[in-house]
Amino acid sequence: MSYASEEAATKFGSEAFFASIGRAFVAMCAVVPILFLIEAIDVGLGAGHLDVAGGIIPRRADGLDGILFSPFLHAGWDHLYGNSVPLILVGTFALAGGTRRFLWSTLVIILVSGIGVWFIGDPDSVVVGASGVVFGYLGLLFARGFVERSWWNLGVAAFIGLLYWYQIYNILPTDQPISWQGHLLGLLGGVAAAIAFRRRRPKPTPSLYGGDAPTLTDF
């Protein structure tokens, strides 16, 4: 996709903008049933079987594979329900900014959150869930608003933050069985991804006049 096409897709109110939002929404809605299928398989095998096999177990070698697998696993239906709606919401707007950089951003968020949890998480826990990715997308949208000077992304992040303000405290240490480390590091991973994969404006084409190419006007 050319820079001009990407710009059109991010221009609020344009046809391309609403089309990109619609496609992203459909794609994210297709992801969630896969998570429900995985949870159904886990329940069929015996609740928690896949969680232990594919979750992050901090500072243990057999828990390293959870860095990649844990976002797809959940500790029960309630956990999955709680993550599904915000995942669709923030994922839609993150994906609408471009598929390729969405995929790269998701990978960065998963790695930053997962590796961080493996190093500093509770060694007596098994960490699963997509909430680190959800916080990562929130950080991505918020930071993208600044680095790309996009009031639209900043507004979306602020709106979602207001909707889920009661969850924001989960990035701070708590006695609850919640991986605040994964939430905080996911958020920071999203900020890093927004900076690393920011949309760069093309440089102006130099001209014989020593500056930018002149604008031609018909008489």
Fold and architecture overview:
Helix content is 64%, strand content 0%. With 219 residues, the chain is mainly α. It has one domain (3-196): Rhomboid-like fold (Up-down Bundle), CATH 1.20.1540. The longest helix has 31 residues, at 15-45.
List strands and helices in order, with pairings.
Elements: H1 3-9, H2 15-45, H3 49-54, H4 66-69, H5 77-95, H6 99-120, H7 131-147, H8 151-163, H9 165-168, H10 180-196
Helix pairs in contact: 2-5, 5-7, 5-8, 6-7, 6-10, 7-8, 7-10
Based on the model shown, name its key terms.
single chain; 219 residues; mainly alpha; Rhomboid-like fold; 10 helices; 0% strand; globular; disordered C terminus
Oligomer: single chain
CATH homologous superfamily - what is it?
Answer: Rhomboid-like
Helix content: 55-70%
Number of beta-strand segments: 0
Task: Determine Rg (CA atoms, Å).
Answer: 20 Å
CATH topology: Rhomboid-like fold
Largest sheet, in brief, is: none
Summarize the structure.
With 219 residues, the chain is mainly alpha-helical.
